[in-house]
Design a protein that fits this description.
iron transport; 724 residues; 3 helices; 5-stranded mixed sheet; 24-stranded antiparallel sheet; Maltoporin, Chain A
Length: 724
């Protein structure tokens, strides 16, 4: 791909023609009212900064922008973040950024794309699929964040900021109704309780009355969700230099998830398969019950020359599900998995940062993390098909995983005075993991597997960056980052599969430029990147159970571009794209899945010479892009906002063998909102996936047949809102 390589190497220079046009006095776009772009504040370097001053590829959105584009939960972010593929499997959150992610589910398996809410790390995948009700903003930091967000952030970080309390009384509320008999409600209120105390309360609820599909075995709805989210914050400012913020949150999800046989697959024992892809045959009826709650205290104190921040947080997550992994109800072919997965975590972070605008700005700190997941709650793998193997009661698995982690980190940036800035950062981490895994065959009254082990992993990660302010509105940069994801243990028989899984590492090199043109009417940010990825923690499902293996080596490179343009005082355009080339350099032991034909069905696994060498990485589309056009105008008594958001994904492979593939797809979301001038009353008509595309939220092979979980179909509705 010579043209692609040339585009990558010249990526940082692509903005030069526009810069020259600006210097030559070329007129700006037709923005006759002079309405300019607002600065975007991000926290990618653990301090509030203008995104244009940060030498990192970042996609950032306010709550209003997300709402207009129909993004109301974290799984929808891939619509407006090129390079982000957000998988969702039976309630587990699995984001991939530029092909870096994991398909592993279960207790203690963390994602290399780290999720943070108000600075608190969410380790449990079951707690990662959260609604975006009443938030302030979302920021996606692409590439390894090896220093300031160093724990398990090989692929990047998703940062969600929720609304802080205000002393002035105010709030908003909305009530909506959509197809599939879906009811939504949101409420937010904030205000002062005393001269130095303020509080807020946010609540969001959604109930989907009709499922996207039907279980033809019993006539009941499937693929249906109900969600309740609550969050409250208390702000106390005992003095001018001290700020204490305590947050409490709770979220509960009830659903009926579905895994259907993937198109073209023949489930094991060749049972009946529904003709409508969203319908299934399943016995028993699947279910999902998940909850999470947490409490966090953030204390900021300004000493003058420096400031200290403490973030203390405890979280508990519960997950209870049952799903038939082939969703077939024929006698003798039922295969289901049920399990309860409790998860607890505690984290403590201290940050000491410089305040003054001296040539050297810095932040240093320490991080402590404790986690326990999956203890004393056996997972059942069973069904009528197990009777064929003399196991009518199935198999019980009881993993007990514990993690204890600590880190010291620091990063500093020195400005030479000529627009040149040099950044260097280090993070040293120590992590101890323990496992006690028991697999029981209740029909024989024995423990087939009983293994205990512990392992300590040590790592040094870093960041080096140089940036040059070419003009007041143009900055170019280069960086080198080391990303790291800790090693882990398999939930598997150590005589068959490796118990200890090595850490994965990613070295990322990036060139970029950040540019503002035409008196802040047009913003264009470009970056080219090169990844060297080793020891990828890759998942496979032989015999229906998840197994993790260390992949070989891979090389990824690509081009990322984001644009925001105030076209006129009424029209606003945002757009982005990512071109990605990903290949395994070496993966000799890659599992190769082979569909089994009639009469047996299912999938067999083998290896082959060369393994997956030369194949593309999973969830790594060659090209993805989006564009969102917003029209906003005020009339005498009304104001209106209309938005159309278009998203394109070139498609991706599910696994390293590149057999299962989700083809290319386009999504269109749209909304029209009418409101009074003071915002006291509003009426919004909205639609998502208006082209009604059927595409995969997740896709994978397994012994009893390849499975797929579909993303939601076309949805639309109306929302009545008010602000006060």
């Amino acid at each position: 791909m010579p043209a692609f390589r040339i585009a990558l190497l010249s990526g940082a220079a692509m903005a030069a023609p526009a810069a020259l046009a600006q210097q030559a006095g070329s007129p700006p776009a037709a923005n006759t009212a002079g309405k300019t772009l607002s600065d975007i504040v991000v926290t990618a370097q653990r301090r509030d900064q203008n995104m244009q001053d940060v030498p990192i590829t970042i996609s950032a959105f306010s709550n209003a922008e997300l709402d207009r584009s129909g993004i109301d939960n974290i799984a929808d972010l891939g619509t407006v973040v090129p390079g982000l593929v957000f998988s969702n499997i039976v309630g587990y959150s699995q984001p991939y950024i530029r092909g870096v992610g994991t398909n592993a589910t279960g207790p203690g398996f963390e994602n290399p794309v780290a999720t943070y809410v108000d600075g608190v790390y969410y380790a449990a995948q079951a707690g990662g699929l959260m609604s975006l009700d009443n938030i302030a903003s979302v920021e996606v930091d692409k590439g390894p964040q090896g220093t300031l967000f160093g724990r398990n952030a090989t692929g990047g970080a998703i940062q969600i900021r929720t609304l802080d309390p205000k002393y002035k009384f105010g709030g908003k509320a909305s009530l909506g109704y959509g197809n599939y008999d879906t009811l939504t409600a949101q409420y937010y209120v904030t205000g002062g309780l005393a001269s130095n105390v303020a509080a807020n309360l946010a609540a969001g609820y959604s109930h989907q009355g009709d499922g996207y599909g039907t279980n033809l075995a019993n006539g009941k709805d499937v693929d249906r969700t109900e969600n309740l989210a609550l969050r409250g914050k208390l702000l106390w400012e005992p003095g001018a230099d001290t700020r204490v913020l305590v947050a409490v949150d709770y979220e509960k999800t009830n659903g009926i998830p579905t895994l259907a046989p993937a198109p073209g697959t023949i489930p094991q024992f060749a049972p009946a398969v529904a003709s409508n892809p969203r319908d299934v045959y399943g016995d028993p009826q699947p279910y999902l019950h998940a909850y999470q709650w947490g409490v966090a205290a953030t204390v900021d104190h300004d000493f003058g020359a420096m400031s200290l921040k403490s973030i203390s947080a405890f979280r508990k997550t519960g997950y209870d599900s049952l799903f038939d992994s082939t969703l077939t109800a024929d006698p003798g072919t039922t295969f289901f998995i049920t399990g309860k997965e409790p998860h607890r975590q505690f984290s403590q972070e201290l940050q000491l940062a410089s305040n003054e605008s001296a040539p050297l700005t810095w932040v240093t700190g320490a991080y402590f993390f404790w986690e326990r997941a999956g203890y004393l709650n056996p997972t059942t793998i069973g069904g009528e098909s197990f009777a064929l193997y003399g196991l009518p009661s199935g198999i019980l698995q009881s993993p007990d995983r514990r993690t204890l982690s600590g880190a010291l980190f620091g990063q500093g940036t020195y400005e030479t005075g000529s627009g040149l800035s040099l950044t260097a950062g280090l993070r040293y981490s120590i992590e101890q993991r323990k496992i006690h895994f028991v697999e029981t065959l209740p029909d024989f009254g024995i423990d087939d597997v009983d293994v205990q082990d512990k392992k300590t992993f040590r790592n040094l990660s870093w960041r080096l960056a140089v940036s040059q302010q070419l003009t007041p509105d143009m900055m170019a940069y280069a960086s080198y980052n080391r990303g790291y994801k800790s090693g882990t243990f398999n939930n598997a028989d150590p005589s068959l599969y490796p118990l200890v899984i090595k850490p994965e590492r990613l070295d990322a090199f990036e060139l970029g430029s950040k540019n503002v043109f035409f008196d802040n009417l047009l913003r264009i940010n470009l970056s080219g990147f090169l990844y060297k990825y080793t020891n990828m923690q890759t998942t496979t499902y032989p015999n229906g159970s998840l197994v993790i293996i260390n992949g070989g080596k891979a090389t990824l490179y690509g081009l990322d571009a984001d644009m925001e343009w105030a076209v006129t005082s009424s029209f606003h355009l945002t757009a982005g794209m990512e071109a990605l080339h990903s290949r395994y350099d070496d993966f000799p032991d890659a599992p190769i899945s082979i569909p089994v034909g009639l009469p047996d069905g299912g999938t067999a696994y083998t290896t082959q010479p060369g393994g997956a060498k030369g194949n593309r990485l999973a969830k790594a589309p060659n090209f993805s892009a989006y564009a969102a056009l917003t029209y906003a105008h005020e009339f005498e008594t009304l104001k209106t906002e209309a938005n159309v958001t278009y998203s394109y994904n070139d498609g991706w492979y599910a696994e390293a063998d590149n057999r299962l593939r989700q083809g290319s797809y386009s999504l269109v979301n749209a909304s029209v909102k009418l409101s009074t001038i003071d915002g006291g009353l509003s009426l919004e008509f909205w639609g998502k996936n208006l082209l009604n595309k059927t595409y995969a939220a997740t896709l994978a092979s397994q012994t009893n047949g390849d499975y797929i979980q579909y993303a939601p179909p076309r949805t639309y509705g109306v929302t009545l809102g008010t602000e006060f």
